[in-house]
Predict the structure of SIR2-like domain-containing protein.
Amino acid sequence: MSHDTSVDATLQTILGEIANGAAVPYLGHGVLASCRNVESDAPMPADSDSMILAMNNGRPMAPKLMYEFPRAAMNLELKKGRSFITRFLTELYGGQSWTRAPLHDWIAQHKPGYVIDINRDTQLQDSYAHTPHILIRGTARIGGTNFRYELHAYDGEKYTEIAQEDADLSLPVLFKPTGSPVPNPTYIASDADYVDYITELMGGFGIPAFLKEKRKGLKYVLLGMRLNRDTERMVLSDIVYAAAKPTGWALIPDANDKEKRFCDKLGLQWVDAGIDDFLAASPILEAAS
């Protein structure tokens, strides 16, 4: 837990920017670090290594496959079919009950108007379960269209698929680039998925037109997001296109040199703080408001 006054001041700035809609929470795997299975108390597989182990019945795969989840998923997809990966992720995140992440409780309380979540679980959507919203989820390798997203409107009870021109732009936007099991399973998981998705994301087909407009000049707050993986860095770079300058903040405790260099390249200010620090700083903002 940091007690650096400059970090505390930065966290207050960040909280204020999220509150006024100028900054967007961008959630990585670390957000789910404390989540556990309600029945077995096993930790939720969310980071790359634990997801690979869960996908492979608890057994490590070859070192070159253990490097990154998409690579391991590609290997098993080639052996068992794409439907195997879809079933695995749907059972993991849609068929089991997990304890809530503290940051998701914070989001449920504050309801930011735009949140990006690169995890494939449902906790972000659960945080808006009683709040109408727009849901954008990445999809890949589909025929007949260049678009690489599914778009749904939630009315407070159920999701309905909509066209981008029918989106109510007054509603909060939840963007899950790698998908989720609800309302229907769609995921970006294997290398082939990511190649297709990132190509169309770079080409402008990965997000709806209204979001391209909405994101201009925004700042981003990376929470629970390590920046060591090339695939996730590429997705991040494309999603924050047309951001404010500087781009925002990356809360990474003890970031390494590779992460710091990437932050500099992208215009993110590195903050030596974690989710606990962020949450601890928040009540101060509430008391002042």
Remarks:
- The chain has a mean pLDDT of 94.
- DSSP finds twelve helices and eleven strands in the chain.
